[in-house]
Amino acid sequence: MRSPFLYFAGDLLSETELIAASLDGHLVRLGEGFVPADTVETAALRAASIGPFLGDDAAATHASAAWILGACDEPPVRHSIQRCVAHRTRQRLDHRYRYRDPRVEDADLLRLGGLAVTTPTRTAADLAREEDEDAGVLLCGLARAHPGVLALAADWFLARGKMPGKRPALRLLARCQEEVTRYTS
Asked: For the packed helices 134-145 and 120-129, what is the interaxial angle rounded to 10 degrees?
């Protein structure tokens, strides 16, 4: 069920009308949609705001999931989505998101705004394996929003066998844990 506070271009109003309402101060952009300016921004609303990308067969992952879960204030420039159903889906091509085909298991998902999002633990694990300088910043933000998530992500890695990027990910999680501990003490 879609939020009554979320407006997408083409539903009731055109993109031009939504932008005009935002210039007038009535609406603000959130993800791929617009919400009333005084709406409280929740994780469920953030998830629903990228609903046009996700549908029922994909989940928000990596930086998109981190944004939804409160690790940062601004959405990523390019969203990350990943298949979350057993069957393969048609190839998704769009410059606004990066699609990954390996399936995210149900145990690593939660539902927010009626859509699938990776859990904080899985999001931290995914970010730790990214070869991106923003991953550390997002990990620290995720750790502040969800205390204890870095230790849970390390446990997530240790519960699995060999996998690419596991050792560097564990080192990054340890560095982020030190940094978060230093700034919260």
From this structure: 160
pLDDT digits (tens, 9 = 90+) for 58-109: 999 999 999 999 999 999 999 999 999 988 877 667 888 888 989 999 999 9
CA angle 99, 101, 103 (to 5 degrees): 120
Q: How far apart are CA 141 and CA 144, in angstroms?
A: 5
Q: What is the number of other CB atoms lying within 10 angstroms of the CB of residue 52?
A: 16
Is the Cβ–Cβ distance between 177 and 150 less than 8 Å?
yes
Helices 120-129 & 166-184 angle (0-180, nearest 10) = 120
Helix/strand/coil (H, E, C) string of 44-103?
A: HHHHHHCHHHHCCCEEECHHHHHHHCCCCCCCCCCEEEEECCCCCCCCCCCCCEEEECCC
Both tokens of 22, joined, read: 């935002």
Whole-prediction pTM: 0.92
- As a whole number of angstroms, the distance between CA 128 and CA 140 comes to 11
